[in-house]
Structure formats: C-alpha cells, structure tokens
Design a protein that fits this description.
alpha/beta; five-stranded mixed beta sheet; 56% helix; elongated
C-alpha cells in the first residue's frame, strides 16, 4: 500500500481558498475571462478537497460503504480532469479567439474542446459499473484501497496532454495579441502542471498536482487577473480601459446593449472653486449611487474620465429606456452635501442603442466623447440616433489634425488675385489659408476654420497668415510684380484681442513692409461681437496706414452703423448678393444703390464671386472698383500667383505701348 504524503494538498487548499476570497474582494469585469478564471479556482479547490478526502479515507477500510469510495474517487477524477479543459478555455478567453471566429467554426472549436472531456467522464464514471472487467481507469481492492488502472488510466492522462497541446497551439498562434508578461505567465501553468504530473507518476506517494495548480493560480491572480488595472481609484467603478474591453466583447458577440453616458456639467466650476478633493467627493457619491441604488444595480457602471460616467444594460426594452432616464433625472435633482456644502448638480445624458447608433466600440467611444465635449448638449438629453455622427466625427478628426499642424508645416497661404476695374489689371490678392491633414489631403476652410475657432487655434493661424504675407512681400520687389494691396482676413477671435494692432504693427515693421499695402478684412460678425475692442484696434491700424475692409457685406447683420462709425476704406460685397442680383432687375437695383451709397461715404467697393466675362462687365458698369473670382483665377500657390502678377504687368505694359503707338 502506498503511503501518501498529503501535506501538499493541505497547503494547496489554503492557497486556493485565500485566492478565491481575494478574488471576491475586488471588482471584476463580467466577461468570459473572469468567469472562466473563477470557475477554474472553484474547481481546483473542489478537486483538491476530493483528492485530500480520498487520501484520508484510506485509513477507514471497510468501515465506510464501498459506494462512497467509488463516488469520492470519481468526483476527484472528474474535477481534476476538468482543470486542463478549464485552462484551455481560459487561454481561448484571453486571446479572444471565439469572438473573431465565425459561427460555423465556433461549433467545431467547442466540439474539439468539450467532447474529449465527456469521453473522459464516461470512462471515469463507468469504472464502478465495470469493476469486474479490465476496462478500468482505477480500481478498489477488498479493503477499498485505490489502485491505478493500466491502459485506460493512461487514456485519461492522454486527454490532459491533448488539452495542453491545444492550449499551447492557441497561445502560439495568437502570441502577438498578448502582452509578453501575460504570455509567459500563462505558459508557466503548463510547466508547473507537467512537472507535477511527472513527479506524481514516478512518485505516487507525493500529492503535488494540486499544489502546482495552486501556485499557478497565484501567478494568474497577480499578473493577469489584477483588478486594479480596470478600476478607477476614486470612484471604484470600472475605468475607461475596462469600458473599451467590455463593450468590445459585446460587439464581438453581436450582443445588443444600451449605453447611457452621463456627464457632469459642473466639474470645472467645482474643481476651480472648491478644489479637486471636493470634486472627487461628488464623483464618488454619484458612483456609490450607481453601485448601490436598485434603479442602477442591473447596469455595469464605468467612470470614463473627470465627471463622465457610462452605464450599460444588456437586456432592455423601450420602457426600460424611459425609466432609466427618469431615474437619472431624479438622481441629479437631489441636493448634494459633501463637506456640508449644499450643491445642485447638472448633467448631460446621452442614450446610445448599440449597435444601431454606433456600429463598433471605436464609434461608441467617439460618440461618448463628442457629447461630453460639445456645449450644445449641456444640461439636456440626446439620443445617439439624433446625433449628426458623421459630421461630428469629421470635426473631431479635423481637431486632431490641427494639433501640431503649424510645427509640421501643414498650413500654406494661397493667393486669389484681385482685379482693378479702373486700372484694368490685377493689383493684388486676398491671402487665403489652406490646410492639409496628416495624410496630406486638403481640408476645406469651411470645415477647419470653425473647428479652429472653437479650439483657439485660429489665433495662431491668423498670425501665421499675416507673417507669411509679410515674409513673401519682403522677398520681392512689389512694384515689379504690380502688387498694390494684399487682403488678409481677421477672425472674430483675433478682433477680440487687445494686443492685435500692436502685434501686427510689430511684425510689419520687422519685415519692412509699407502699411498701405496691407488691407485687413473684418466680417460683420466680428463687428457685432467686439465693437469696443475692435474700434480701438481699427483706430490704431488705420492711423498707421493700413487699409480696413468690411468683408462679406450683405451676408450677416448688414448694419449701416458699422459703415458710419468704423474706419473702413473698402466694402466687399458677398458673392451670394452678386449672384442673386445678376439677371434679377429688382435685386440689381438694390445692389446699384448700395454701391452708390458706399462711394458717397468715401469707400471703394469690391465684388466677390465673379465667374464670367458678362458678370465682370456688368459689375464694372455698376461702379465696382475691384473684382475677385474664378473668372480671373482660383486661389493660387505663392509661386503661381507671382508668375500671374508678372504676366499681368507685362500684358498691361504691352497694351499701353500699343495704345501710344
């Protein structure tokens, strides 16, 4: 009779029990990986318990009913032989193989995974029924002493080897998708298991298998199943990484789910006025409500970033959505009192039904962030289906592209020529900013200018344009090129800067550019929003000799007061006014009267959007001083513009000479 040394089993039991208790003391994502790992721990504990039980039962001989011995040993084999299968399934969950496999291939995968274990079960549980034959995995003698079987016993071990080879194959194929540390930690289980099995085969009295498994469980718990990597320290909710991992799994399983994003609108105010610790108390209190109150217990809750939460329901209906929104409104209508400071919180709520509203985790994450960042959704409820998602995503992509764009030389100034009707030649151009994204594709100013105004990049862009124009003019003989004016647009944000005039004056002086050659274009919108600051800047710039123009006249407020009170020298008629007036006698009469009025106020007129020779002749007859549009040229790169100006000077000189002859 073999005298078993079972102290290793006792140590394994304590190790596994502590690991299980520790596991339940932390939050874990409700995903396949964590469920399989917990099942593995529990089965390992049960297997070790039965292994120890069957060992201790040896001393009782026939005093215990023989069937109890059979059942105990069968359970010991059943649970112990499940562990290689559990390990394989754990490897599959780590590598996300199932989520990337078609439904048909998944069937074959699960058949090859489960069937060998069921064959083992048949062999194990049929042993008591065929105890009088040689088809035995193990046997009990007359004193109920356990003895290994011969051939059929090793068939069970063959199943273990099969699962190990299967697991190693899965890990090897998908090695690149695993962190290096995780990969070697998972492989360490195989090493410990193989060593334990070999030792137990050659030294049957040493019960080492469970001890080796318990050591592997500790390594998994420490290096792979670390819950802190997925939990926010302040709120103790799952963090953004966990949100990405969890929702990614739902998408891969084609599971429909509801994502409700809740954004606190007061985080900046609370942080600036009361400090970050005070803000943390609020975020923690809200997180506790999501965790503990019955209205939200069915949701998986996440804390994405400062003041932004996401709650996910996997099973929901239309009425559930209405109830969720109602409960959230009730929650945020409370008066919160951390540190005895009474405070009412305001929130924005976004309801996203997936995958209908967001087809993948990247689209969902972008939508969640868009709603959090867009001020139009403050203190309201928005549904994902109502968001102009494509436009929003385009805006975000442009915003990302604008970052570091100046340092990466992705901005360029183009020039659209301006024609003088009195001199009958090109006399300058309007400087227009052009921008290429990181893929070197041109982005329309109508797209990136509003984004840059929102992000504040418009100030640096405006300075870049002014600097580029001054630099270009300083490197050429402007008289040789016939350049008498370059128009530069000013944004609303620039007009709000008190130091605008001083900054431009300084740059112009550094480059040695005559003030009269610079014409700054100011929109009616800027005039409406910043009248006091704008007037101060305009007076300084005008006194210095720069020309000032009212841009896009007729497209905005069209307030006559601007023409009367601000020192404009030119008015640019918006192209839409030009196009609507052409061929329309009534509108044409109004335009003619407008041009006459502007002239009587001592200002010149430039008409935009000239596209045909007929329009050119018509606008000249109406009295426009300058014309601009595709009839003369589209916006050109600096080199092409200068070539065109030289050609215009030469043609004009030739015409004068022929007239003199």
């Amino acid at each position: 009779m073999v005298d078993y040394i079972f102290y290793f089993d006792i140590a394994a039991l304590f190790i596994l029990l502590i690991t299980i208790i520790t596991h339940f003391q932390h939050k874990h994502l409700p995903n396949m990986q964590n469920r399989v790992y917990l099942l593995f721990l529990v089965v390992a504990f049960v297997a070790t318990s039965f292994d120890l039980l069957t060992t201790l039962m040896r001393g009782y001989g026939t005093s215990i009913h023989r069937n109890v011995y059979w059942i105990a040993h069968c359970f010991a084999f059943t649970t112990m032989n499940f562990l290689p299968l559990g390990y394989l399934i754990y490897c599959i969950s780590l590598t996300k193989v199932v989520e990337r496999t078609s439904a048909k291939k998944q069937i074959y995968m699960w058949i090859s995974t489960i069937v060998p274990y069921f064959l083992q079960l048949i062999l194990i549980w049929s042993t008591p029924l065929v105890s009088e034959t040689k088809i035995l995995a193990f046997s009990l003698d007359a004193n109920n002493i356990y003895t290994r079987g011969d051939f059929w016993f090793y068939i069970i071990y063959a199943g273990t080897i099969y699962y190990i080879i299967y697991a190693v194959t899965i890990l090897t194929i998908h090695k690149k998708e695993l962190d290096r540390g995780i990969y070697f930690t998972v492989l360490s289980y195989i090493f410990m298991m193989v060593i334990s099995v070999l030792l137990q085969l050659f030294f049957p009295n040493l019960l080492l298998l469970s001890f080796g498994i318990s050591l592997a469980a500790i390594m998994f718990s420490t290096f792979i199943q670390n819950p802190k990597a997925y939990v926010d320290n302040v709120t103790e909710l799952f963090n953004q990484d966990a949100f990405f991992s969890y929702t990614n799994g739902l998408y891969r399983r084609k599971q429909e789910f509801l994502c409700v994003s809740v954004v606190l609108d007061d985080t900046v105010f609370l942080s600036n006025n009361f400090g970050i610790d005070y803000l943390n108390q609020f975020t923690k209190a809200i997180a506790d409500a999501f965790k503990n109150e019955k209205d939200f217990k069915n949701a998986t809750s996440f804390y994405i970033r400062q003041g932004q939460y996401c709650l996910i329901w996997k099973n929901y209906g239309f009425r559930d959505v209405e109830k969720i929104i109602f409960n959230l409104r009730v929650l945020f209508n409370r008066t919160w009192t951390p540190e005895n400071k009474r405070m009412k919180l305001y929130s924005s709520i976004c309801v996203i039904e997936c995958p209908q509203d967001a087809e993948n985790v990247e689209a969902l994450m972008k939508m969640v962030n868009l709603v959090a960042e867009d001020s139009k959704y403050k203190q309201g409820i928005v549904y994902g289906r109502n968001i102009d998602f494509e436009n929003k995503l385009r805006s975000v992509d442009i915003e990302h592209s604008l970052r570091n764009a100046l340092m990466e030389n992705r901005f360029e100034v183009y020039y659209q020529p301006i024609y003088s009707t009195t001199e009958e030649m090109l006399i300058g151009a309007e400087a227009l900013i052009r921008f290429r994204n990181s893929e070197q594709n041109l982005i329309s100013p109508e797209e990136f200018i509003p984004v840059s105004e929102r992000t504040g990049d418009i100030l640096r862009i405006g300075e870049f344009v002014f600097d580029s124009v001054c630099k270009m003019l300083s490197l050429i003989d402007v008289e040789q090129y016939g350049i008498k004016k370059i128009d530069i647009n000013l944004s609303v944000a620039q007009c709000m800067q008190d130091a605008l005039a001083d900054k431009f004056s300084s740059l112009r002086t550094i480059y040695g550019i005559p003030a009269s050659i610079i014409n700054l274009e100011i929109t009616e919108t800027a005039a409406a929003h910043t009248p006091d600051v704008l007037l101060k800047n305009m007076q300084k710039l005008s006194a210095e000799g720069m020309e000032l123009s009212l841009d896009d006249y007729g497209s905005g407020y069209s307030n006559m007061n601007y023409l009367l009170t601000l020192p404009f020298k030119m008015v640019k008629i918006d192209k839409n006014i030009v196009w609507s007036a052409y061929g329309n006698l009534r509108t044409q009469t109004a335009l003619s009267a407008t041009i006459k009025m502007i002239h009587e106020l001592g200002m010149t007129v430039l008409a935009e959007g000239v596209e045909t020779q007929e329009q050119c002749e018509w606008l000249s007859q109406l009295g426009c001083d300058y014309l601009q549009g595709y009839y003369f040229s589209k916006p050109l790169k600096k080199e092409d513009f200068l070539d065109m100006m030289l050609k215009s000077v030469e043609e004009h000189s030739s015409e004068l000479e022929s007239m003199e002859d």
